Amino acid sequence: xxxxxxxxxxxxxxDARLVRGEGRFLDDIVxxxxxxxxxxxxxxxxxxxxxxxxxxxxxxxxxxxxxxxxDLGEAGRPFLQLLPHHxxxxxxxxxxxxxxxxxxxxxxxxxxxxSFAAAQLAAEAVAVEYRTSAPIIDLESAxxxxxxxxxxxxxxxxxxxxxxxxxxxxAALRSxxxxxxxxxxxxxxxxxxxxxxxxxxxxxxxxxxxxxWSSTQEPxxxxxxxxxxxxxxxxxxxxxxxxxxxxxxxxxxxxxxEILVPWLAMRLGRPVKWVETRSEHxxxxxxxxxxxxxxxxxxxxxxxxxxxxxxFYHDMGAYAPRGGAVPHNTSAALIGPYRIPNVRSEIAAVYxxxxxxxxxxxxGQPQGVFVIERAMDRIAAHLGRDPAEVRRVNxxxxxxxxxDTGLTNLLGGAVEYxxxxxxxxxxxxxxxxxxxxxxxxxxxxRKAGRYFGIGIANYVELPGRGPWAGGGVRVEHDxxxxxxxxxxxxxxxxxxxxxxxxADQLGVSIDRIKVLAxxxxxxxxxxxxxxxxxxxxxxxxxxxxxxEVKEKILRIAGEMLETSVADLEIEDGKVSIVGVPxxxxxxxxxxxxALRAAGPDGEEPGLEATRYFKTSNITYSNGTHIATVExxxxxxxxxxxxxxxxxxxxxxxxxxxxxxxxxxGIACGIGNALLEEHxxxxxxxxxxxxFMDYAMPRAADMLEIHMVHQETPSTxxxxxxxxxxxxxTIPVPAVICSAIEDALRPLGVKINEAPLPPFRLWKLIRxxxxxx
Length: 772
Known about the structure:
Layout: H1 15-19, E1 35-41, E2 47-53, H2 55-58, E3 63-68, E4 100-101, E5 107-113, H3 116-125, E6 127-132, E7 158-166, H4 169-175, E8 178-186, E9 198-204, E10 209-214, H5 219-230, E11 237-240, H6 257-268, E12 272-275, H7 278-284, E13 291-299, E14 305-317, H8 325-333, E15 343-351, H9 365-383, H10 387-394, E16 403-408, E17 414-417, H11 422-433, H12 435-447, E18 451-461, E19 468-475, E20 481-485, H13 494-506, E21 513-517, H14 534-561, E22 568-571, E23 574-577, E24 580-586, H15 587-595, E25 607-614, E26 621-632, E27 637-648, H16 655-675, E28 704-710, H17 732-743, E29 753-754, H18 758-771
Helix pairs in contact: 5-6, 8-9, 9-10, 9-17, 11-12, 13-14, 14-15, 16-17
């Protein structure tokens, strides 16, 4: 394979179009006779629904229809579980609440009108009778026998209880020279894409075709669910994901609105549009991160871990559209890059009367990394050793790969690290940061009365999730090359990276290639863009398709040039005889020959192929992050000063895009570490319903980032790719909290929770001062 394009730092091809304002997002789409939808959302987190009175709403000029669950028929049944697995007590949402609501903000009724203003005004006029019950908000209280139930048929609100273990943890803890117990808590936040969700649906009765535009990360999953819920064949439903202003996991789910809006379009016989408001997004889009961990570790004098026991509680929110994927990821990420011979991880995932919890960038992995890295820091402090050295003595060595951690993934497969150089990334990060120099600087800062801290965190990311992805390649009559994928981009750069892969495999310039994605009419099957998976699976699918097309080009060109395929080569879109460059054919000439009625014998017309790539296991990326901070104890204000990292995502398709993904991930991670939190009061009402209350990082909060690439190719795919999309976020809360605790060590402050906004850190500093 040529590597003219693979590995090159090419600017993202879509950026110029988007910067010029030429992107076409969902709300830019306007269709003739389009109706607009507004939802009536529950004011209460736990209530049975009585009468729904729409009489006043129907008097609002322009109102076309007011519907509730009773109107939906089969379309109102609960959604199918997307990730069914053993031990899950599944509860999934419906297009509209079926007789009771389980969180404040759940959709009860929908209003269709000639304008959004009319729909919204009418929605406010719908009267709903509630019979309220006490909500359950607290994660630990939810499991008690006397706790209110979110779903009456699920005892103790227990969505999932699972135990994973290897070795004999209790025996190892009893015999360990040192033992520590800690409790860690991570509170919930959200993806907060700049563009909220939205759906447009248009039904063509004559052709019996339903076209849906959705700002989704998974158009094929949306198509399949719509077809199932509305009683249609899949070929009758087309789902298009237009330009999408961020996803971060929030848009991987099939939401109730994505069923209700198409249902209304079919009922009304006209296009219907819904665009989520920011307040709706805060209330009803999925959230994540809320967990409590009780951990015990046993270790020797060198800091080597002998045993790890972790019991943790995970908040599922009101529903589980994707099963227990998030807490299971936490359990898998808990091991990190470390050799731990005896492990027990116990998960109790519970339903609460809060917004549904599903994946947000990292999907449970930041919590696992936070716990194990906080434990590493505590071991180092207990033994009086350097935290970098404690990590070093526990790190899996290169000659141990493939390394079986003893745990399993959600689908029952082994969590087995297939390749890596974990010490390599640790050493590279320490060298990049000048770790010894930082420690010397810390000594001087403390002499000057400043609270300067250094944090370290290792991580292993679980990207490349299967089971498969598809890609199509075609050479048109004019020599242009469209590439088709089922996975839309929300900033990952598919238009560039897939073109780079195809260009090398096919032997053409990247300028000839146009990547088309996110439309179920382009490719029959797809899963979507999430979990750092598409480079691994989609990239290798595009490779297979390009190779198949290349083989056909060579066969046809060999016939046209009257020579053997073995004597041909392709470069810059021309097929020539090796050593005789003047005797050549353009791609255009070969494509025209392939499309002629009297084409080559034995060949189907055209130059195109669609292939699917399936992986046998998950790939694993890894890295080491180092951060420096300075803390002002009087206010709890934290300034993150510099950031260093070494990462390994296998072979890098495009260093510029990888660096952008990591920097964006770090921005998310800073929010997770210091700012972002969805808070509910005891009545189940969201207290952070706007950006006035929900703090997010701004441009001014970003900092100086230094990074170095390490490339250990994956053994699970021909391109050697591992994936990188979530790697930037996963270790950030751990490394920043590590640095904060290091800065405040003279004051005796322990950091056992995240995020740490100034008021919370100030309280911890005050509490430590009183205890002293």
